[in-house]
């Protein structure tokens, strides 16, 4: 087994811990968290049935039949002491373990192209192979979809469906599922990252394009998000930007700690990136680095300084004039003001370099809530400039 193959196996531990932990947590203690969800769903649905009966939508007989079916489902899914539940124990807890067994196979196809050239041709399991190994997955997908039709705001169920489709090798369906979840619930970090991973797998294991843009959107909101940092490092590794990969993974390691298997895994990833860096020609001898760098100096108008707390969030982003969508962004704390920030193509959230934009609108906003969206009471400054010109930006306007 090559060094990189060993590294891949170790890296999977981090991916599984970050992505699949909610599944294992839900299956522990006979699925205690899932039981809570099922009980809550039972209460909500039984209340709906009573209301429908009182409104005359259901007859007494229809109400009794529907309530009986609901109680039966609750007994099967929750009560660990009943004979029915005992028979269904494998049915109630199989999904995390099936996904855990399938994800390393699909993840190998995702990670191996980053370094092991003799294994680039490795293919993930087809949907048919996944179904033959876990026939109940099709049933789970159907049940989750039906549940989500009735409960479109259930984040856990959207995540479970997306992970299951990924495990089955149905990456485009998984990406669409995460997209539907984002429309139904909003841009939750877990949904953005889930879509990024599914799109990367569907595109032949490449993080470029929309996947890395989604990851960067998460990092704008939460610059220390471990999974986003990990995927950002994977993208940098894929692009041959080993210093950036090392930087990202060191940030992950700072959160995970140096001890234990996960710390060792990140150490191995960093060591592999360093080994690649030592064997890589210098930037002057290789492909040119990004040439567009936007230097931004940010300060606050003196008359507004007393409105700011050190823990307030500062968003600095560039966008096309007339557009609301950032093409590059960075997040800081107000306690760091005045700021000197460099936005370059590494921070780009667009498919083209910053230098391709003839004009950019630079916005610096201080948010009390930590939300990227502007809210009343936030303060901001805006200036328009050419990408290659340094910018001095004063935050001087209160959003009403």
Automatic annotation (TrEMBL):
Predominant place of localization: other
Record-given protein name: Cytochrome c-type biogenesis protein CcmH
Lineage: Bacteria, Pseudomonadati, Pseudomonadota, Gammaproteobacteria, Thiohalomonadales
SUPFAM superfamilies referenced in this protein's UniProt entry, alphabetically: TPR-like
Entry-linked InterPro entries: C-type_cytochrome_biogenesis, Cyt_c_biogenesis_CcmI, Ig_CycH, TPR-like_helical_dom_sf, TPR_CcmH_CycH, TPR_rpt
Organism this protein belongs to: Thiohalomonas denitrificans
Gene Ontology cellular-component annotations: cell envelope; plasma membrane
Any one Pfam family match given in the protein's UniProt record, by short name: Ig_CycH
Membrane spanning stretches: 94-114
């Amino acid at each position: 087994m090559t060094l990189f193959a060993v590294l891949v196996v170790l890296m999977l531990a981090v991916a599984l811990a970050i992505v699949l932990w909610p599944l294992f947590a839900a299956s522990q203690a006979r699925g205690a968290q899932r039981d809570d969800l099922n009980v809550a769903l039972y209460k909500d649905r039984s209340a709906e049935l009573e209301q429908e009966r009182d409104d005359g939508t259901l007859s007494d007989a229809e109400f009794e039949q529907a309530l009986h079916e609901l109680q039966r489902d609750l007994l099967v899914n929750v009560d660990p002491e009943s004979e029915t539940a005992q028979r269904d124990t494998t049915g109630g807890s199989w999904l995390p373990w099936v996904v855990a067994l399938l994800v390393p196979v699909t993840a190998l196809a995702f990670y191996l192209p980053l370094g092991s050239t003799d294994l680039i041709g490795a293919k993930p399991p087809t949907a048919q192979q996944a179904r033959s190994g876990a026939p109940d997955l099709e049933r789970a997908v159907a049940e989750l979809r039906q549940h989500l039709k009735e409960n479109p705001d259930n984040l856990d169920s959207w995540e479970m469906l997306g992970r299951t489709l990924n495990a089955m090798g149905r990456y485009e369906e998984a990406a669409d599922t995460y997209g539907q979840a984002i429309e139904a619930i909003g841009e939750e970090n877990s949904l953005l990252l889930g879509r990024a991973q599914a799109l990367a797998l569907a595109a032949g294991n490449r993080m470029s394009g929309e996947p890395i843009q989604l990851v960067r959107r998460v990092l704008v909101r939460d610059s220390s998000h471990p999974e986003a940092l990990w995927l950002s490092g994977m993208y940098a590794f894929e692009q041959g930007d080993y210093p950036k990969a090392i930087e990202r993974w060191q940030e992950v390691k700072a959160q995970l700690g140096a001890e234990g298997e996960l710390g060792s895994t990140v150490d191995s990833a960093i060591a592999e990136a360093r080994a690649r860096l030592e064997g890589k020609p210098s930037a002057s001898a290789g492909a040119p680095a990004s040439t567009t760098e936007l230097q931004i100096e940010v300060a606050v108008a003196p008359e507004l300084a007393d409105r700011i707390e050190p823990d307030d969030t500062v968003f600095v982003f560039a966008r096309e004039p007339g557009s609301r969508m950032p093409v590059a962004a960075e997040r800081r704390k107000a306690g760091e003001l005045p700021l000197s920030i460099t936005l370059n193509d590494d921070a780009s959230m667009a498919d083209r370099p910053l230098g391709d934009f003839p004009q950019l609108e630079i916005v610096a906003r201080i948010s009390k809530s930590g939300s990227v969206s502007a809210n009343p009471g936030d303060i901001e400054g805006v200036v328009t400039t050419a990408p290659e010109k340094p910018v001095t930006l004063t935050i001087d306007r209160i959003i009403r």
